[in-house]
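Team,

Forwarding the record for the chain on the shared tracking sheet. I've put the sequence and predicted structure together so nobody has to dig through attachments.
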Amino acid sequence: MLKFLGRRLLIALPTLLVIATLAFGLLHATPGGPFDSAKQMPAEIQRSIEAKYHLDEPLWRQYLRYMNDLAHGDLGPSFQYRNTSVNELIRAGLPVDAWVGSLALLIAVLAGGLCGFLAALKRDTRWDYVPMFFAALGIALPVFVVAPLLVLVFAVQLRWLPSGDWRAGEFRYWILPVLALALPYTAYIARMVRGAAIEVLSSPFIRTARAKGLTTRTVILRHALRPVLMPLVSFLGPAFAGVLTGSIIIESVFGLPGIGRYFLIGAINRDYTLVVGITVLYGVLIIVFNLLADLSYALLDPRVRLQP
């Protein structure tokens, strides 16, 4: 196990280096700069600002300076949000995304898994057709359509819930963002679990278990559940990283102070350090949660062994 973890960490470090290098290079190759504006500032002031942020140095020196700071956990100052570091912006926005994303993914796993299992058990009946119809609809409809529709129905017409804003500790402000973020993941999980469950339930070991006279509940919980969860675990690795880094559309519609909004503003305003920092964060989360998914395989299926 320790050798496996060590090998994965050795692979992760050059991967993060490549991610940071590509993000750094592509942003600096994009026309424009962080301090370009419609109103031209005096040349002396612009040179002074660029010198403060080391933008007057050659690109290779800026790269080495940034990589040195990154190795020490410093993502640098934000060019757009003055007197604020990228670390501070991430610390402010990530808890909001983590809370909303965790609730959304929990709902998606429970609702999607239940619908998928039910559809597989009641294959080719209305209990299969109806959930899968809505699952296909949930996959087809993009988030930027679903989120405004939820606001229109529950906030504008019914007036049951607030249309936006964020007040930590008040449950009613979480419902619509969580629901809008959970719906597409619920649809994907339902389709995935249904397909995996149909394959597992038609396997020889399941037929043997049923031939022994075991109840359907026992067959599912003791024999079918773990194999069905294997593809779901693979999906949840990048999915959890995705919801943690926030959805730009969800944050824009509901006014959430998450890091997705910072990423969008940073990309528009050429805030190099902010965009690269969030990109590196996303890479770290992908690597960590994929590693946790690999470790989960050994728990779900004893036949899986983590080779050094």
